[in-house]
Automatic annotation (TrEMBL):
Organism of origin: Oncorhynchus tshawytscha
Coiled coil: none
Name of the featured protein: U3 small nucleolar RNA-associated protein 13 C-terminal domain-containing protein
One of the record's GO cellular component terms: 90S preribosome
Cell compartment(s), UniProt: Nucleus, Nucleolus
Gene from which the chain derives: TBL3
Pfam families tied to this protein: Utp13, WD40
UniProt keyword terms in alphabetical order: Nucleus, Repeat, WD repeat
């Protein structure tokens, strides 16, 4: 088979890994799990312009904008060799020969260079191409020593590596050639181009044998019989996100890998062409995210795209949902977790259903009557009965859902709005429904939040009150699940809590911004108790599971982060730690009572409590024959325990009350350990240097005390009590 393609990824020979570029990295994706198992990153932080994997999967070579070539042991993510490319401009393409000993690089300067990977030198410098050399390929028969290349002039050059001469230029394409494929016998070659044609070449006569228009279809080589056609909207748009930019067969597993215009990787099972796996290559800005499924096992993501993406959190596999024709802006999920809604710039709202068994998602309802982009959407909380949308046309619409919602997209229900209300003077940025489905709140760019009564089915919206106080547009509004309180956030950097009874502001939290930080606030004290730092840009989406044990955040930096509440785990660990400390302290007391000083000292050091260790040292020194007992105990300690003792002594020595104990321990160490041994201890030099000034100060103090005591002794000798006999 022949596939119209453009080389943006490679697949390992065993078909277990996908290699693809991502800025300064080459990511290695494990196909089975969908997880990145290795990430090969340039040290110079320059973008990778091209890479090649040898046919035996042993060698990976990358080229960066810094004109460096690096050879990697990709399984260990280690660079084994790097050298300067002789190209004057970045490398656009590269490939290995079948023996994995020769590497060809095509540059943006129109030159091709061949490298002996084993002996590590440049063997050829081929000139003559016009413009960027975006494709190089060796003939599969290495004995012919032929290289094929294509540049901006749309021709295919055949190079003889023995003479370094161009044998001929194959001309028939009218757009850049995107790929080359050879028949097993090497007698024929097929080329594909952006002109959407495949050309079969006879390499002996060097002429075109046949030209086949494919229009992104997959064809059988000799019969040119179409076996599969990708169905696109009619008429298909030029920038349709499902347009293919690369196709690669996986012959061992009878699969086909494709890359779409939005960098998504799709794996199809042959010959049925059923979608087996989908991987998202690039998210762009993530605008919203919600947990999905009965057990919150999935997340649905809205990116800067008309597509929705549903990820399985366990396997990282993805399903891409098509339906909207412009960027999806907001999402919400019904209580049961299998039904969710979306709205987009295409002025429509859509209702989607996820099958709890298969995980398949279908669009089951659609509504289109807004006059401008729909920027916010929310759904009923108690039953799957209605949806509310807010638009840039300044209106709010209430959409009633049918009692029986279709199961598949084949029976899509057309929604009609029950209520349309001119709610604000500017864009409606956020809408939310109360837990009892009786109230609705809206937040707008006009700096106001408004509370509405939803009333009975069929009734109009009734304005109950207005929340005033924000200095800039209101971006998000939410009801408290417990109290009659409303929360609102604004572009003025504040979060406000409002009373639903008198519409007064209860609390204000300052410091929220677009710095990518997620902050956790305690409402009672109005304090930020935790700051989560994982994003580099504005956080647009935030959602918690129904159990409130996990939170997912989505940011303009293209990253989605799932946070787990570890409060109970940390409390349990802290409690277990405290209980362990109590047991150890009791054991320490028993050891001291039994005069088992070595075990007592080792236990105190393991607790990493210098004060407790000091108590043990004092107990040893105050016991019978304390000096010898201290010497015996200290010398029996392990090296890591002696390192801790030295660190503790440096601290004890700063205090007059504990300096004698520190000096006693130091005396034992200096007496029995050589300077070389001491200096091998971690931080020994710094600790010993810290001992000197305080030791000198203690010596001066002792000297003054000695002088004073001698003076007192002198005075005592000279003093006589009147009438007392001389002694």
């Amino acid at each position: 088979m022949v596939f119209q393609c453009f080389p943006t990824l490679q697949i390992s020979k065993d078909e277990k890994f996908i290699f693809c570029t991502c800025g300064t990295r080459v990511n290695v994706l494990q196909i089975v799990t969908g997880k990145i198992v290795h990430s090969i990153e340039q040290d110079d932080q320059e973008d990778i312009t091209s890479f090649a994997l040898s046919l035996d999967d042993e060698i990976l070579v990358t080229a960066s904008k810094a004109l460096l070539l690096k050879q990697w042991d990709w399984k260990q993510a280690q660079c084994t060799r790097s050298w300067r490319a002789i190209h004057n401009v970045p490398i656009a393409s590269m490939t290995f020969d079948p023996t994995a000993t020769l590497l060809a690089t095509g540059g943006c300067d129109g030159t091709i260079k061949l490298w002996d990977v084993v002996k590590q030198y440049c063997t050829h410098n081929l000139k003559g191409s016009s413009g960027v050399v975006h494709l190089v390929e060796f003939h599969p028969d290495i004995s012919l020593l032929q290289l094929f290349s294509s540049a901006s002039d749309c021709g295919i050059r055949m190079w003889d590596l023995r003479s370094s001469q161009c044998l001929c230029v194959l001309q028939s394409h009218y757009s850049p050639v995107t790929s080359l494929a050879f028949t097993p016998d090497g007698a024929s070659m097929v080329s594909s181009g952006r002109d959407k044609i495949c050309i079969v070449w006879d390499l002996k006569s060097r002429t075109a044998r046949r030209t086949v228009p494919v229009y992104e279809m997959i064809i059988i080589l000799y019969s040119a019989r179409c076996v599969f056609t990708q169905t696109l909207p009619s008429p298909p748009s030029a920038g349709d996100p499902r347009s293919l930019t690369y196709c690669l067969p996986l012959p061992s597993s009878l699969r086909l890998a494709t890359v779409t215009a939005e960098h998504n990787i799709l794996l199809y099972q042959l010959p049925s062409f059923t979608t087996q796996q989908q991987f998202v290559g690039f998210n762009d800005e993530v605008l919203d995210v919600k947990f999905l499924g009965k057990g919150d096992t999935h997340i649905v993501v809205a990116t800067n795209s008309s597509q929705l993406k549903v990820f399985d959190l366990a396997t990282s596999s993805c399903k891409i949902l098509y339906g909207h024709t412009d960027t999806v802006l907001s999402l919400d999920v019904f209580k049961k977790g299998s039904l969710f809604v979306s709205c987009a710039k295409d002025k429509s709202v859509r209702v989607w259903r996820q099958d709890p068994d298969s995980g398949q998602v279908s669009c089951v309802a659609q509504g289109c009557s807004h006059a401008n982009a729909v920027g916010s959407i929310t759904c009923s909380r108690m039953k799957e009965s209605f949806v509310v949308s807010g638009s840039q046309d300044c209106t709010i619409k209430v959409w009633d859902l049918p009692e029986t919602i279709p199961e598949t997209d084949g029976d899509m229900f057309q929604l009609t709005s029950r209520v349309t209300e001119k709610a604000h003077d500017k864009d409606v940025n956020s809408v939310a429904v109360s837990p009892n489905d009786k109230l609705l709140v809206s937040g707008s760019q006009d700096r106001l939040a408004k509370l509405w009564s939803l009333g009975a089915p069929g009734a109009d919206l009734a304005l109950l009150g207005v929340f005033r106080g924000h200095r800039r547009g209101v971006w998000c509004v939410q009801f408290s699940p417990m109290d009659q309180v409303l929360a609102s956030s604004s572009a003025d950097g504040s979060v406000k809590l409002w009373s639903l009874q008198d519409f007064s502001c209860l609390k204000v939290g300052e410091g929220c911004g677009s710095d990518g930080l997620v902050k956790l606030w305690t409402i009672k004290t109005n304090e930020c108790v935790k700051t989560l730092d994982a994003h580099q840009d504005k956080v647009w989406g935030l959602h918690a599971t129904r159990k409130d044990d996990r939170v997912v955040t989505a940011s303009a930096d293209s990253n989605i982060t799932v946070w787990t509440d570890v409060t109970e785990v940390e409390q349990a660990e802290e409690q277990a730690k405290q209980e362990d400390q109590i047991l150890k302290k009791q054991e320490l007391s028993n050891l001291l009572h039994e005069k088992k000083y070595l075990k007592a000292l080792g236990l105190a050091i393991s607790l990493d409590q210098p004060h407790t260790v000091l108590k043990v040292i004092k107990a040893i020194r105050q016991g019978e024959d304390g000096a010898k007992q201290l010497e015996k105990t200290v010398l029996k300690l392990r090296q890591d325990q002696k390192e801790s003792m030295l660190r503790y002594c440096a601290v004890w020595n700063t205090n007059a009350r504990s300096c004698l104990d520190a000096q006693a321990v130091i005396q034992v160490m200096l007496t029995h350990l050589s300077p070389e041994e001491l200096l091998q201890y971690q931080g020994a030099r710094a600790h010993l240097e810290g001992l000197i000034p305080y030791t000198e100060r203690h010596m001066q103090r002792i000297g003054r005390l000695l002088q004073a005591s001698m003076f007192l002794d002198y005075m005592w000798q000279k003093m006589r009590v009147t009438g007392a006999p001389a002694r």
